[in-house]
Amino acid sequence: MGTGSLQQSSSSITVVDPWNLHASYGPQPFDIRFIYSQLTLYRLPFFSDQRGVMGRLLGGWSISPLFTAQSGAPLQVNVGTGSNSDAQAFGEIYGNNNRAYENAILTAPYTGGNSLHHNVTGSAGVGVNGDPANRGSGLNIFADPAATYALFRRPILGLDTTGGGAGVLRGLGAWSLDATVSKELRATERFGATLIIQVTNVLNHFQPENPTLNIDSPTTWGVVTDQSTVGALSGIGGTARGVPAINPRQMEFGLRIHF
User: Among residues of the chain, what percentage have pLDDT more than 70?
Assistant: First the structure.
């Protein structure tokens, strides 16, 4: 929790209301509540001496899978576009390149969830992304975009006491499976080599990027259009929105000779 993810002494960042620091107080963009990592190393016990043809082929193999998963980061619900996306309770941004966290106000308990929904049909101009068929990309973090859009309104100076910090909602969770496969190659007792194969995103799964939520852009509300390949957390100056970079499957081969 805090008022901003950057130090205010050496940046252009300021709070929404300098006379009320609580107005900017809330979760920080790096507030990931649950993170899980599991690294496993398994060496095949067969033909460890690598004798004979079968030993040369089947001995010396090992695999090291790495599984990571995390819950969603805070997701900001913006008001306005461009330089007017924050400080809306005051009607305008503070000044030259100054920005502050300020979300649209949630008017009722939120029950929309934060998982990816397929084949979502927008309605009433919400979540359609300019598509006449009211489908947008077909991917949306809300099962009913219009219903969740109706839960938000603009902040009102003197009435609303907090801007919600880095986000009043939680974005999409993420997971990935990487692995390293290696094989020891024995030429003699003195000379040998290690073949290394590294694979990221082994299953080549699609990790959606969080959408930008803006109550002044209802057509794109909740619509997912990108894969997460940038990796910056949400926040001031960030382009990705709280999902780690998970690129399509990549493979790297290496050979290390030892003597």
Answer: 79
Amino acid letter, 17: D
Residues 134, 11: Cα–Cα separation, whole Å: 42
Compute the distance between CA of residue 51 and CA of residue 59 in angstroms, rounded to an integer. 8
Indicate the pairing of strand 213-214 with strand 77-78: parallel
Q: What is the CA radius of gyration of the chain?
A: 25
DSSP 125: T
pTM of the predicted protein model = 0.76
Residue type, 120: V
Q: Which one, of 221, 22, 24, lies nearest residue 13 by Cα?
A: 24
**Alpha-carbon dihedral 83, 125, 169, 89, rounded to 10 degrees:** 40
Q: Are 1 and 27 in contact (CB under 8 A)?
A: yes
What does DSSP assign to residue 55? H
Return all residues near 156 (Cβ < 8 A) that are at least 6 apart.
89, 105
Residues facing 139 on adjacent strands:
118
Q: Which residues pair with 148 in a beta bridge?
A: none
CB count, 10 Å around CB of 48?
Answer: 12
Domain ranges of the chain: 8-258
Q: What is the pLDDT of residues 1-27, one digit of tens each?
A: 887 766 656 556 667 777 777 877 888
